[in-house]
Amino acid sequence: MQEKFISKAKLSKKAQKELAKAKRGDWGLVKPVTKIKPSGKDYNRKKFKEAARSYDYGRVAS
């Protein structure tokens, strides 16, 4: 037998939440975060620190 239709307005708050949750979809593999490629012109302190750490300073490897 078919369930009797009850409008959302007449449902309890808890039942409304359950109904909304059931209808709501899932993002799946999509990440809802905006991704921005950093500009090459911007000053990047981290980049310079990494370059300084990796520099050999003319040491002779033994």
Task: From the structure above, extract its key features.
62 residues, mainly alpha, 2 helices, 0% strand, rod-shaped
Short structural summary:
The chain is mainly α and 62 residues long. Helices cover 34% and strands 0% of the residues.
| DSSP, total strands | 0
Oligomer type: single chain
Ends distance = 86 Å
Structural class: mainly alpha
Morphology call: rod-shaped
Number of helices: 2
Main sheet makeup = none
**What percent strand?**
under 5%
Alpha-carbon Rg, integer: 29 Å
- The helical percent reads 25-40%
Q: What's the mean pLDDT score? A: 85
Spell out the helices and strands N to C. Answer: HH
> Unreliable stretches, pLDDT < 50, 5 or more residues?
none
Please, could you describe this protein's structure?
- It is built from 2 helices and no strands.
- The protein is rod-shaped and about 85 Å long.
- It starts with 12 loop residues before the first helix and ends in an 8-residue tail after the last helix.
Topology at a glance:
Blueprint: H1 13-23, H2 45-54
